[in-house]
Design brief:
alpha/beta, single chain, Nucleotidyltransferase, domain 5, 5-stranded mixed β-sheet, 34% helix, elongated
Length: 137
């Protein structure tokens, strides 16, 4: 409450009464403090239990297919023909577990040549195919 003295001449007061503002803010603060924990409810999900019945996979070194700009393909740095590549990929697809096949190409190799090699790998039934590149500087 603000009282004015008669010595001021009875003019209007320039002071703001902040008591109602503080009351409203305290009520809002209490409401938000009560409702905030209720808004963060969690959905209960039953997660599957992990079992070690299967042995963890043995680290198998990946097979690297290098493709030159001329279209020659190298299997772990050994030159192979198209027929040899198909035969080796067929044998590799029968392995359990399958190793990853990494395709590495020159920076000027046409994409169609790389796509043909990747298509052969995928048609042979190999699921893990990766690309090798140099890191950005």
């Amino acid at each position: 409450m603000a009282f004015s003295s008669n010595s001021g001449g009875g003019g209007p007061m320039a002071d703001i009464n902040v008591t109602p503002l503080v009351d409203v803010m305290l009520v809002l603060l209490i409401i938000f403090m009560i409702t905030a924990p209720l808004m963060s409810h969690k959905v209960k999900v039953e997660l599957p239990q992990a079992t070690l019945a299967e042995k963890p996979p043995i680290d198998i070194p990946p097979i690297t297919l290098a493709v030159t700009s001329a279209g020659k393909v190298y299997w772990n740095d050994e030159a192979v023909t198209a027929d040899m590549l198909d035969a080796r990929l067929a044998v590799l697809a029968q392995r359990t577990p399958q190793p990853q096949v990494d395709v590495r190409a020159d920076n000027v190799t046409k994409y169609s040549v790389i796509a043909d090699v990747v298509k052969k790998v995928r048609l042979a039934g190999i699921r893990k195919v990766g690309f090798v590149s140099t890191p950005e500087r």
